[in-house]
User: Fold this.
Amino acid sequence: MDISNISGAAKDSSPPKLAVVKSNRMDRSGARRHCFVLIFQFPYHGLTANDSESLAWLKTFYYEYLGDIDTAPRPSGRDDEYIDRVIWGALEKQAQLDGVITNFLKGWEIDRLNRVDLALLRLAIYEMLCEPDVPHGVAVNEAVELAKVYGADESPAFINGVLGNVAREIKEAGRE
Assistant:
């Protein structure tokens, strides 16, 4: 019996062609970019941890009107869950995150920080402290990459320096 007839394979010996299926699922970098943009918006809308209605409005407004301009595709499923967890967490822990940032600023006041840099620091530090599946090096690198796109010329080096010190401190404290 000829096995190739059972499987329906072609008689030549070339391997079958695989269909390429595009996924609407974004990667974690795309989800992180959405987190950054939403966290960046917090101070402009006066959001607090108790203001769930306004945060829900901001997220809806962002996805409907701003999200497709310069960022990854609109998230769904696990990506949307990750974004919700991170933006809610960063908002709820904003005072603590700002305290950590303040501890690592050398000769700077947090109020003088560029708002892009502040949002990136909040995001990355939140991930390092509260998202155990995100390696510290990844959080630092992703923040630096976003700083290259959205920040000032000196932002990538500044972000890298502050977050490198934070990551080192976390490691020394045994919280890695």
User: Anything to note?
Assistant: The two ends are 60 Å apart (CA to CA). The chain has one domain: 28-172. Confidence is low (pLDDT under 50) at residues 1-24.
